[in-house]
Amino acid sequence: MYGLPDDVVVERDVPVRLGDGTVLRADVYRRADSDEPCPVLVAVTPYGKDTGVDGYPVDFDALAESGNYVGALELSECTSFEAPDPAYWVPRGYVLVVVDMRGYFSSGGRPRLMLGRAALDCAAVVEWAGGQPWSNGKVGLAGADYLATLQWYTAALNPPYLAAIAPWEGVSDPCRDILTHGGLPETRYSEFWHGALSRGARCAVSSLTRLTPWMLRRFPAAFRHIAPAPRLEDITVPALVGASWSDQGPRTRGSVEGFRRIGSQHKWLYTHGRKMWQTFYSSDALDVQRRFFDRFLKDEDNGFDATPRVRIETRHDLRTYSERFEAEWPLPDTRYVPFYLDHEGSELTPTLPEERRSRRTFPVAGDELHFTHTFAEDTEITGHAALRLWVQAKDANDMDLFVGLAKRDAHGRDVWFEGHSGYEKAYAAHGWVRVSRRALDPEASTAYRPVHDLTKYWPLLPEQIVPVDIEIMPHSTFFEAGSTLVLVVAGHDLDENPGVGHDRTINQGFHIVHTGGCFDSHLLLPVVPERTPAPEGTGGAAADTTADRSAPPAPEPVVERVDLPIAWGALVRPQRVRL
Q1: Inter-residue contact 541 to 478 (CB < 8 Å)
Q2: What is the DSSP letter of 186?
Q3: Per-residue confidence at 386, pLDDT binned at 50, 70, 90?
Q4: Based on CB atoms within 10 Å of each CB, which residue in 11, 187, 320, 450 is the most buried?
Q5: Contact assessment for residue 481 and residue 363, using Cβ atoms and an 8 Å cutoff
Q6: Domain 8-233, CATH 3.40.50.1820 — does that match?
Q7: What local confidence, expressed as pLDDT, does residue 2 receive?
Q8: Superfamily, domain 335-540
Q9: What are the angstrom distances between the C-alpha of 499 and each of 332, 493, 505?
């Protein structure tokens, strides 16, 4: 932690008056030796604009004691939590405006539960900042996590002067990304988030964590109105989206879906599999952010337009990754290949075991099912994966299922990856579902990305066997020849990460998984053809920039599902099979 450069001045508690008379308070960081108008970066925060590292809502020492290591953070003492660092941006020709959100710390008004209200306030701040004498009339939004989530909502309003956004690991649909992903109420991260939001609030803040299970059970059709998603298609400004494979709980899905769905003609996706905060403030990521904002807020002809749209960081293990650029997401020549579950040998096989119909019963309290596939050649798995399971609950009318994709090296040793908040024993990818919420949304779902319609409730009947499709969050993982992919199926959270999890499951008794014959339980994996090799290394790799930027639009990804005995679209309605 270090102080601000001498040539940076701060105007504290600058009033920003909103249309309803509420006054927000802003800190404005500017160059002391320049009267020339500059582009402006805005961050509206509930964590305190004047709160430095020692006052962050995250206790880094406590995280380390629990096995979560956030890594080295080089920040100035004035950097608000997950906001841009003024010591970096101001000397590079920007004005930074950090504002306390309505009802928090120094700003007036009452705190609001809805992100829509916060977005209206943020849009007003953008318009105010763009009209100030120290502004060149172009404003960008920056920041991570909640500050990134707020960017999606604000940019959808298209406020005057907004010229670019850089949401870094931000939720783009609170219900589907966190609160009720797969129909399961998330508890641990939601509790942390509520506690963090309450620290600086002028009065009590309502808790979505406590409302979620009750609303989902009583009023499923109305639940999404409590935390509606922004209209991502209405976002048209240039966007640089940060997404991590390591934050599989709260933020991976929202970041990738946000990039995919926004209407911007100029958008870039920066993926990584490392520690969130350390990477956000790293020299490499900051350089990409700076070049992006220089292009769209300063109109510099710096070649950023020619940068391929997607940076792919492929994880090899906890500390090693390779890097390259691609033209779009999902990768256009991806082959979605099914691997069928076979209880005999606990294997993932390339063909359906038609003559070996079998079932496996396991108690939900602690036991797991493992299915493995050892790769004969180097294989990259990058993109969205999906799992179909034919399941049955013994003596229950519902069940919660948790699945994970893990890696073992050629010697059979577990290979771990970075997880949420620096957890260093994470799986490569996760997914989960509550079986009574298994109905698919036919408009949002694809073969490789099943999306559940949480307004429908289909409890299990006695002895009923049903197909359940589980969205596995996107990731990029490299499997060397001889290494093994492990599919884990359980009735509980797989990671022991204290920062994310589901403590309100409905499981009891035994789960039964059926495979073979008419039960086409299978894992659909996004297999990427071999690319031009890029050098690998610990902590980083040189980029392969050979992507053809002038190529015509690529065809849709190939889905190898033509021979499946049950069509994917049939899962929109419930199916029943009785033995």
Answers
A1: no
A2: P
A3: very high
A4: 450
A5: no
A6: yes
A7: 83
A8: Galactose-binding domain-like (2.60.120.260)
A9: 34, 12, 17
